[in-house]
Amino acid sequence: MKTKEHISPYVDIDFDVLEEHDSPFQLIVWNDDVNSFDWVIDTLIKVCGHEPEQAEQCTLLIHFKGKCSVKNGGYDTLKSMKEAIIDRGIKATVEEMAY
Predict the structure, then answer these.
(1) Model confidence over 27-51: pLDDT tens digits?
(2) Residue 76 has pLDDT above 50, yes or no
(3) Pairwise CA distance, residues 37 & 42, whole Å
């Protein structure tokens, strides 16, 4: 949701406000020693709708950090994406976001 905040009478700042009901869940993809970078990148593009650069960056985070939150949203939407990722042999979970 886009909100205009008036901090002073001289400055208007537009920024995104995350409210609890907007995206309370996150889709997390976990690292493994089985799937190739290309397979994970392709999966993020096809399942999550990532741009190639975004998918590549997430894949690097998955590899080096062990996991990456690849998408935020409602539970039902993320659950179907999680199942599609798991069907492709990649470990994924849906977790409630901590605020």
Answers:
(1) 999 999 999 999 999 999 999 999 9
(2) yes
(3) 9
Inter-residue contact 77 to 16 (CB < 8 Å): no
Q: Is the dihedral of CA 49, 17, 60, 36 positive or negative?
A: negative
Q: Could you please state the CATH topology (level 3) that the domain comprising 20-96 is classified under.
A: Ribosomal Protein L30; Chain: A, (3.30.1390)
Q: Dump the DSSP string for 18-84.
A: --TTT--EEEEEE--SSS-HHHHHHHHHHHH---HHHHHHHHHHHHHHSEEEEEEE-HHHHHHHHHH
Please give the structure tokens belonging to residue 3. 């909100």
Are 71 and 55 in contact by the 8 Å Cβ rule? The answer is: no
